[in-house]
Amino acid sequence: MKFTASQIAGILEGDVVGNPDVEVSKLAKIEEGTEGDLTFLANPKYTSYIYTTKASVTIVNKDFEAESELSTTLIKVEDAYKSFSRLLEYYNQVKLNKTGIEQPSYISETASHGENIYRGAFSYIGENVRIGHNCKIYPNAYIGDNVTLGNDVVVFAGARIYSETVIGNHCIIHSGAVIGADGFGYAPDGNGAYSKVPQTGNVILEDYVDIGAGTTIDRATLGSTVIRRGVKLDNQIQIAHNVEIGENTVIAAQTGIAGSTKIGRNCMIGGQVGIVGHLTIGNRVKVQAQSGITRNVQDDETLQGSPAFNLSDYNKSYVHFKNLPKLVQTIHQFDKKRNDNE
Q1: Statement: residue 309 has pLDDT above 70
Q2: CA 274, CA 286: separation in Å to the nearest integer?
Q3: Contact between residue 141 and residue 126 where contact means Cβ atoms under 8 Å apart
């Protein structure tokens, strides 16, 4: 799909400096731009590239003034970074604007859906499923019995949504995600083996939740595993049974959260963090990557380490951690001198 500089300027409410009819069909970094590409300049350290880029169109801030001749057409806007992000969103909407029913696909006679939906080939929609307006179910996706999807939900190829799951509006479920699998519940049977504890609850995703590729969210043993409004989960995260994650919390890849832990609002949790079960983590907590959380955490704490502790204390301690070999050597030299003097 091609757009002219004047069309893009119209979308962004910007001004064209150069050829308004030049066409672009791809997006690129400014240092890698070629003919037919659209790029942007927001960070001053990349300014030199605007004089060498081969991109056909470059979005810049209104206060940008060229110091030498340019080969790229400019679109001047108030904020180049925000405008380019807005354009990416628009481009993504156009690219993913699929509608209609592909065959073969299956939908139960007891299921219902709203207007303007897309069902990809080999998708499966079970008994009593309720799907809202403008939803997109990509090929090979599985929607189990009694699932509810709100409006403007996207379920990408190969995602699996187990029975009884409730998903709000404007949610995105990426490929390979599994929502509503059984929680890890087993009880010793007294003979050295384990008996499975039935997992009879469900998973609830509120509005504007994004679930990354390969992420798993287990259903509750009783009640619900709840992901609150605006939560963003990266790829390959494990959320165990009966966990609750507060509004607008973001969690990076390979984090694991054990059963029944409650995480507050607006938290930021780095990659490969491990959180044990039955904890309460406050609001606005920040956890650095590869930390292990083994205790309750108060509001506004920032933690690092395993087991994790206050980030400021961790950084002070790290000065000593990395100097331990030197300290040991100094002690050995001191002992040797003392022994020699005895």
Answers
A1: no
A2: 13
A3: no
Cα–Cα distance measured from residue 164 to residue 226, given in angstroms and rounded to the nearest whole number: 13
Q: Which two tokens stand for residue 11?
A: 């979308």
Which superfamily does 3-95 belong to? MurE/MurF, N-terminal domain (3.40.1390.10)
Domain assignments of the chain as residue spans, ordered by start: 3-95, 136-308
- Please state, as a whole number, how many other Cβ atoms lie within 10 Å of the Cβ of residue 250: 16
DSSP letters spanning 270-317 = -TT-EE-SS-EE-TT-EE-TT-EE-S-B-TT-EEEETTEEEHHHHHHH
Task: Find tokens 């006679």 and name the residue.
Answer: 109
Over the stretch 278-295, which tens digit does the pLDDT of each residue have? 999 999 999 999 999 999
Phi/psi for 291 (5° steps) reads -90, 155
**Beta carbons of 89 and 26 less than 8 angstroms apart:** no
Task: Determine the average pLDDT of the residues in 153-176.
Answer: 98
DSSP state of 133: T
CA-based nearest residue to 166, from 183, 182, 142, 150: 150
Residue 123 has a CB neighbour count (10 Å cut-off) of: 23
Cα–Cα distances in angstroms (integers) from residue 136 to residues 140, 154, 173, in the given order: 12, 5, 10
Predicted confidence at residue 342, as pLDDT, reads: 64
> What is the Cα 169 distance to its own chain's centre?
17
Average pLDDT over residues 112-139: 97
Residue 135, burial from CB neighbour count under 10 angstroms (0-12, 13-18, 19+): buried
* Neighbour count for residue 45 (Cβ, 10 Å): 6
Phi-psi map region of 146: left, alpha, beta (phi>0 left; psi -120 to 50 alpha): left
HSE (side-chain half, CA atoms, 13 Å) at 199? 24
- Distance CA(82)–CA(62), nearest Å, equals 13
Choosing from 113, 170, 241, 278, the catalytic residue is: 241
- As a CATH number, domain 136-308 is 2.160.10.10
Q: What is the distance between the alpha carbons of residues 271 and 5, in angstroms, rounded to a whole number? A: 40
Residue 170 a catalytic site member: no
How large is the C-alpha radius of gyration of the chain? Answer: 27
Average pLDDT for the chain? 93
Quote the tokens at residue 77.
């806007």
